Amino acid sequence: MAFYHGVSTREVPTSLIPPAQMESGLPVIVGTAPIHLASDEDALNNVNKPKLIYSYDEAVLQFGFSKDWEKYTLCEFIYSQFALYAMSPCVLINVLDPNKHKEKITAKEFNITDGEINLGADVLILDSSFEAASIVSEDDETESKVIYKLDEDYTIDYDDDGNAIFSVIEDGALANKATVSLTYTKLKPENITSNDIIGGVTRDGDYTGLELINSVFPKFRLVPGLLGCPKWSEKPEVAAVMRAKAENINGIFSAVSVVDIPSDSEGADVYTEVPEWKNRNNYMLASQIVCWPKIKLGDDVYHFSTQLIGLMNSVDHDNEDIPYESPSNHSLQMNACVNAAGKEIDLGLDQANYLNSQGITTALNWQGGWKAWNNRTAVYPAVTDVKDTFIPIRRMFCWIRNEFILTFWQKVDAPITPRLIKTIVNSFNIRLNGLAAREFILGGRIEFQTTENPITDLMDGHLRFHIYFTPPSPAEQITGIFEYDPAYVETLFAAVK
User: Fold this and answer.
1) pLDDT at 129
2) pLDDT tens digit string along 328-358?
3) What pLDDT score was predicted for residue 21?
4) For residues 465 and 424, is the Cβ–Cβ distance under 8 A?
């Protein structure tokens, strides 16, 4: 130390570390969006790019909106999450690529009716290849093409239903024409396959589809909590990748995937077929919540997983964003269960409980209206370990593990000293005690055990902390035991004294 004459000060790290703040159930949804209908100038580039969205308006601005949810699956989630459940934020990933999933319509002749042509949905009017022309005869042997000009001879825009409307300008060159030849590009969302949703890595090193889940935390500093793919999670190959991603995000974080079992004739259109389909297609792990059938509100039909994600976010929100409560017996936004053909499915308590006994979430119209009904993950009944079988306990393990990682990441590479160990132990014990005091857990503790930390591992820079904690199980069965007590007959004699 250099010579010093006087008074000096220094600082040491605080011995207690506040827990890292995080979203317990951040939805990350992969699907398709009508980006050609979006208002954002850069919307056509919103392909395989995670976007953090906080409102309905923001979602529509960046991704557009269409009621054709069979083609545009992100719109189903956008409407459910923001309009029905008023929950935010979420991360949306669109895989529909206008440069790939398209069809070129060349020189197609249209009749002009009342100065307009309705070209229908999915037309890319912003595409530079749009051309309006007519073929005219210069003499008996030659023909030439007349090209009409946008905003001079015609305009083109979308109506409220997403249809491209070609309109003739009254004083333009098309004013007296009965037909016109149009060349344009049309999106083909029906060309999307499971491979587009699953994604991968391109030759340029860019990630696509579900592979982009690993980009969410580096990009937004938010940990995914719930993974969804409306419509596509009915495909076993997609559900398998969702499950794998949920269990190992960025190599350290964990989440839960919410998936659907198809309710058509090739899947399971009656409830008795659902468990067999679930087993045969390996929807069987603790990191999965499996849903059946579809649900309906008015004329709109939703995949069950879409609304269940919104419901879980809503229940978490009412509990300080801590996922300790089951979504079961909480209200869904629906008025009917339906299969893929639109046929209503009426499940009684016995049928719904049968599905629950096989780890399947369904809906029950019982006391208080339509409610989600199930506490069990997909691993049940093959596995009975409470940390894996109950939805809220599985989610609590994911949440506390993720929080531990984020809280103590700042201590990585610090010198291994008694102070470091005490800081981690004391900080997390205080956190667990706080959760227990508010009854989010029944109790918890963290220990630095000699048996789990051999000298050689400590010399090599490896610390192990053992965390014990107990989230409360849902009250799945409440039983009242009733007995006739003859002793109360004696009260008759008291009445005549």
Assistant:
1) 77
2) 999 999 999 999 999 999 999 999 999 999 9
3) 67
4) yes
Q: Whole-angstrom Cα distance, residue 324 to residue 471?
A: 7
DSSP lists the bridge partners of residue 179 as 111
- Exposure on the CB side of residue 25, measured as CA atoms within 13 A: 31
pTM for the model: 0.93
Q: Is-contact 331 352, C-beta < 8 A?
A: no
What confidence tier does 145 reach under pLDDT thresholds 50, 70, 90? confident
CA 27 to chain centre: 4
- pLDDT score at 273: 97
Mean pLDDT of the chain: 94
- Cα 9 to chain centroid, rounded: 51
Token code pair at residue 171:
């004083």
Tens of pLDDT, residues 89-101: 999 999 999 999 9
Please enumerate in sequence order all residues whose Cβ is within 8 A of that of 325, keeping only pairs 6 or more positions apart, or say none: 315, 316, 318, 319, 392, 474
Q: What angle do CA 327, 330, 336 make, to 5 degrees?
A: 110
Q: pLDDT band for 141, please (50, 70, 90 cuts).
A: low
The number of CA neighbours under 13 Å toward the Cβ of 57 is: 0
CA distance 31 to 243: 16
Q: How far apart are CA 323 and CA 457, in angstroms?
A: 35
* Euclidean distance between CA atoms 50 and 288, whole angstroms: 22
pLDDT band at 1 (very low <50, low <70, confident <90, very high): low
